[in-house]
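sry for the spam today, last one i promise. C-alpha cells for design, 140 residues
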C-alpha cells in the first residue's frame, strides 16, 4: 500500500512538472508582436526564364532562355513557359516559373505547375530521361 502511494505521489509530481514546462514554453511564444508591422514582399512578373536541361542518358547539359508563351524542345520534351515571377529585392536569387512540359513521344503532359529556382526538388519534373529546372527569371 505504501509503495502504491509513493508511486502515485511520484507520478503526480512528474505530471505537474510537465505541465509547467509546457505552459512556460507556450506562454513565451507569440504569433504577433504588438507595434511590429510585417515587411511587405513585392513580386514582379518577368518576361522570360533561364532553364537548364539534362539528358540523363547522354549526359548532355543545355542552357535555354525562354520567353513567356514560347515553347522550346529539349531532347524529346517540349517546355512551355506560362509565367515567371521573382522577388523585387532579389531578382537573381529566387525565381518561380509556371512550366508545362510535354513528352513528344508519348504525347502526354509530364509536368504542369510551378518550379522554384532555389528548391528544384520541391516540385520537380519526373521523367525517366530528362531533367529540367529553373535557374532564374530574366529581368531584361
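last one done:
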Amino acid at each position: 500500500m505504501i509503495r502504491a502511494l509513493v508511486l502515485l505521489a511520484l507520478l503526480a509530481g512528474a505530471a505537474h512538472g510537465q505541465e509547467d514546462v509546457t505552459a512556460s514554453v507556450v506562454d513565451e511564444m507569440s504569433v504577433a508582436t504588438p507595434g511590429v508591422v510585417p515587411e511587405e514582399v513585392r513580386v514582379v512578373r518577368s518576361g522570360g526564364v533561364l532553364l537548364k536541361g539534362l539528358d540523363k542518358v547522354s549526359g548532355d547539359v543545355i542552357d535555354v532562355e525562354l520567353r513567356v508563351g514560347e515553347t522550346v524542345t529539349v531532347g524529346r520534351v517540349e517546355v512551355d513557359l506560362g509565367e515567371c515571377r521573382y522577388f523585387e529585392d532579389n531578382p537573381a536569387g529566387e525565381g518561380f516559373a509556371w512550366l508545362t512540359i510535354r513528352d513528344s513521344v508519348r504525347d502526354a503532359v509530364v509536368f504542369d505547375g510551378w518550379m522554384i529556382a532555389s528548391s528544384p526538388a520541391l516540385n520537380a519534373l519526373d521523367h525517366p530521361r530528362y531533367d529540367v529546372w529553373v535557374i532564374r527569371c530574366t529581368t531584361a
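The mean pLDDT is 82. ok im logging off now
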